[in-house]
Amino acid sequence: MLGRHKIRRRRRTRIIATIGPASSTEEVLARLFQAGADVFRLNFSHGTHDDHAARIAIIRDLEKRFDRPIGILADVQGPKLRVGRFGGGRVQLQTGQTFQLDLNPTPGDVMRVNLPHPEIMAAAGIGTNLLLDDGKLRLRVTRKRPDHLMTEVVVGGPLSDRKGVNVPDVVLPIPALTVKDREDLDFALEHGVDFIGLSFVQRPEDVAEAQEIAAGRAWIMTKMEKPQALDNLDAILKLSDCVMVARGDLGVELPPEEVPLAQKRIVRAARALGKPVVVATQMLESMISAPAPTRAEASDVATAVFDGADAVMLSAETAAGQYPYEAVNIMDRIIARVEQDSGWRAGIEASRLPPDPVTADAIAAAARQVAHTIGASAICAFTSSGSTALRAARERPEAPILSLTPSIQTARRLAVAWGVHAVVAPEVHSMTETVARATRVAMAEGLAPHGSEVVVIAGVPFGQAGTTNALRVAHVK
Asked: Is 82 annotated in the active site?
């Protein structure tokens, strides 16, 4: 039987851990949560619905045992573009040779192979680059016909059955959600997940479609993994609830030297809008098989923290690696150490953007300034939808943010937000009741000692989303 422990993170940046064969039991998931995981990711590219249902049940049980909201991210697969099969299972393509991609389902050879995606045939043009097997091979289109593309092998190598195809140069007329994705989406929403990871986003319309299906039942976390999405970054972010810098897939289609710049650009744009942003993929990759990360990986995590990302994510490290607990533990330690550094705080201060000229943003900015001036122990944000807490988090205050909400769904979603400690509490109906509850909960949660001060922000009239317009300073007694 797991004991009840008061869980309060001593860091602002959140950790997402992916569940897989190495981390599917209640015992392991409990250890990962205690080590620092704030959100658990279910990868719908693997596993059955029964598998995912069992993991969701375990997480919700842990939530009750530890008396802390835990976020669940359902990451749907998206379209998978692949070549067909070869007669011998594998060929060796030589740099400079010609190679045909066609709609003929006959097994391929060293001269041709099936590409069962007429959309690529339609969208590609002379000079279009095609990347195979996660970018290991590169082809360039030299001739186009309705049923085939003739290419030159720019970078050769071995190519085997069903390897992936990426087309970085053009927008493909393919929806972000496949039939499988829609089935997975329905399942995930029925089981009360908190975030939907949306893959293969190219246009704002892809996000709008997912939002229509979700209908507010989960936040849409748009995965930035296509160069075309970067061309529509602002419009995509405005339609998204949160965003993920999916560096693995992004790095296949972008030159390596462009990926760090894209990461910083996405983080900066998301922070400007107050949308939570996650940096993901290969953060502690060596820990799949080693008990400690490389120094470069530690620096990679630190860079995301210095940039002001809301969360960092572990993928195979916790899903299939030999050291899932150690991976979460060291990521927690790296984040905590960076956030103790004076240079980190100076960078956060320097990167803060002015508030938007609306009342809610003005109140959030004032709360940060007042808390700084008086040395408040916490900023207490009452919120129904989460927007008040997100506005406070956008300011990146020194004081921790205590988010009080009557909605467990909102509390779970805020598990991905920078610096937010969410607590489910009954609705309040007056400012006097608001202040009393804020001070009582702040002290009970270990955020504000007796005799300290807290800054309270809320919306009047109470219970209406998006009405943040009130600020009070309260003494904890």
From this structure: yes
- Cα gap 368→391, rounded to integer Å: 10
- Which neighbouring-strand residues pair with 99? 151
CB 319 within 8 A of CB 23: yes
Active-site option among 223, 247, 271, 275: 223
Q: Which two tokens stand for residue 293?
A: 């990360």
Task: Find the catalytic residue in 60, 65, 82, 144.
Answer: 82
Closest CA to 199 of 221, 170, 215: 221
Residue type at position 192: G
Looking at residue 8, its pLDDT comes to: 83
Residue 370 one-letter amino acid: V
Catalytic, 41? Answer yes
Find the largest Cα–Cα distance for the chain.
79
Measured CA to CA, the distance from residue 416 to residue 286 in angstroms comes to 25
Any catalytic annotation for residue 281? Answer: yes
pLDDT of residue 5: 45
Helix boundaries (H) for 37-84: 49-66
Please provide the distance, in angstroms rounded to a whole number, between the alpha carbons at the two ends of the chain: 35
Distance CA 168, CA 411 (A): 38
**Alpha-carbon torsion 19, 25, 31, 34, what sign?**
positive
Report the run of H or E that residue 140 belongs to, with start and end. Answer: strand 137-145
| Domains recognised in the chain with CATH numbers | 14-78+176-340 (3.20.20.60), 90-166 (2.40.33.10), 359-475 (3.40.1380.20)
**Cα–Cα–Cα angle for 375, 378, 383, rounded to 5 degrees:** 140
DSSP letter for 108, please: B
Q: Which of 281, 383, 410, 434 is catalytic?
A: 281
Catalytic-role residue among 9, 12, 14, 41 = 41
Does 18 participate in catalysis according to the annotation?
A: no
Extract the residue ranges of the chain whose pLDDT is less than 50: 1-5
- Which tens digits make up the pLDDT trace of 22-56? 999 999 999 999 999 999 999 999 999 999 999 99
